[in-house]
Amino acid sequence: MTARHTVDTITDDALDTLYDQLAAAREALNSVHRTMVHDSRDWARDRRDAWLYAILIGWTCENDHPHDDDCMGDDPLTETAARHRWDADTVARVRSYRAAIAALGVDGAGQPADRAELPTVVCVETKEQ
Length: 129
Ligand SMILES: [Zn+2]
What we know:
The protein is mainly alpha-helical. About 45% of the residues lie in helices and about 0% in strands. The protein has one domain. The protein contains 4 helices and no strands. It binds zinc ion. Zinc ion binds near residues 63, 65 and 67.
């Protein structure tokens, strides 16, 4: 974590560091985004998956247009919230978190996820005694 600066105290180097950190965080989140959208699981079924999806991908249409039946607007978030009994405060919190991620410009841009990008899971065979 870098020290907090003001417009009067920040240096070019400190500003470059902040932009580098932002770019690294954006790329990491883009990697997560790509991994999630290429995973065929039902992200709405499990409440923890639904929560992660709500924040990192978003259940609502984020296009700037009049929403219709094709894009479904807020319907997927409304349905997911009902399924997992998220109250209004929880929905407001997830919308806030989602807005923060969206503001970073995380949209999955970059190289498509491939197996090399995914963490390696090593299965250790155990023998019963
Ligand atoms: Zn829409």
